[in-house]
């Protein structure tokens, strides 16, 4: 099953299993119920032509879709239109969860009692006014959220591209990514020396 078809099929069958995605569902905290829900999801995806590998990656794929949806949801809240192919399909499933998450973040930022400064950022000076401290905290929070959303977008893109590769190409690409992560300077040297390599291009 192609990646796009797999994503669409997963979203369609998830609608019938709220214990997977809805914290207000009575069975959300029930391990046995959630396990049986995943079993049912797996069988329905098999019936649609999903491979065993895709069946075993249901939860991983759903988490990727959920993270991307949260990123797109925040963009929409800022007045930016989402062009992501699955945003509308996921809205019935994840909209309430996204609303709650954003509401909790807002409450955390504007509440004095919840104003917590990161140990890795400068502490407010003794003569800094509360309003100034709060404003600086909000700016740091927004910058952190932006960086997190950027990373999430990159992760989603990499996952999508890997899903569309054959096994040999995917393995070679993953090895290349790991080399780049562990030794980026060496990888850049290799790229210049082996300009004509057959390693998969992005």
From TrEMBL:
- Region ranges (Disordered): 119-144
Q: Which Pfam families match?
A: MADF_DNA_bdg (PF10545)
Domain named MADF: residues: 9-98
PROSITE patterns referenced in this protein's UniProt entry, alphabetically: MADF (PS51029)
**Basic and acidic residues composition-biased segments:** 126-144
Signal sequence, renumbered to the chain: none
Q: Protein name, please?
A: MADF domain-containing protein
Native source species: Bursaphelenchus okinawaensis
Lineage summary:
Eukaryota, Metazoa, Ecdysozoa, Nematoda, Chromadorea
């Amino acid at each position: 099953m192609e990646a796009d078809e797999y994503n669409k099929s997963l979203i369609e069958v998830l609608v019938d299993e709220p214990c997977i995605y809805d914290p207000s569902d009575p069975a959300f905290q029930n391990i046995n119920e959630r396990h049986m829900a995943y079993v049912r999801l797996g069988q329905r995806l098999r019936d649609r032509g999903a491979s065993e590998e895709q069946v075993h990656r249901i939860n991983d794929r759903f988490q990727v879709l959920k993270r991307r949806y949260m990123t797109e949801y925040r963009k929409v809240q800022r007045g930016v239109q989402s062009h992501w192919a699955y945003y509308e399909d996921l809205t019935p499933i994840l909209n309430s969860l996204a609303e709650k998450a954003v509401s909790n973040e807002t409450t955390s930022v504007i509440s004095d009692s919840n104003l917590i400064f990161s140990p890795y950022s400068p502490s407010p000076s003794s003569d800094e006014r509360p309003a100034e401290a709060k404003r600086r905290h909000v700016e740091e929070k927004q910058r952190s959220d932006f960086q997190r959303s950027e990373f999430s977008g990159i992760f989603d893109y990499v996952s999508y591209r890997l899903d569309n590769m054959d096994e040999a190409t995917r393995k070679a690409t993953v090895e290349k990514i790991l080399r780049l992560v562990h030794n980026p300077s060496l990888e850049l040297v290799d790229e210049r020396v082996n300009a004509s390599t057959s390693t998969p291009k992005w």
